[in-house]
Amino acid sequence: MTRVLVLNGPNLGRLGVREPDVYGHATHADLVERCRAVGMALGLDVEVRQTDSEAELVGWLHEAADGAVPVVINPAAFTHYSYAVRDALAQVTGPTIEVHLSNPAAREEFRHTSVVAGVVTGSIAGFGLASYELALRAIAATLTGPGT
Ligand code: DQA
Questions:
Q1: Which residue has the CA at smallest separation from atom 2 of ligand 1?
Q2: What range defines the domain where residue 14 resides?
């Protein structure tokens, strides 16, 4: 089974209580369960992690780079300003997908910039938990080969 890391950045551990009008009522535990179930159906061994620490997130990306592990990442607020996360993500050779629950392009101006978008395989935003499901499907399709 191909291992995939799903990495969530700051404040995503507070899903369910955090601005439910923007992020919905599902908790981080719900997100983990959904990703694991979708992964299982796709033949992917999915491990979901969340951190509020930029250093920890960078460390996890180094781990993915060293193991050539595909990554689905929601860098949360780091999306908009962390060159450290961008530079770490640029080292990951497996497929990498940037995901967002909301659609940052339709929100405040500062969210319109993603400093990681230029170093990922692709980006998916605006579909709530389904953004993660679509990303895992994209990883599975990418691993199967072009044109599938
Ligand atoms: C987010 C969007 C970011 O702008 C925000 O800082 C987040 C969550 C999303 O999933 O919609 O924390 O990445």
A1: 76
A2: 2-144
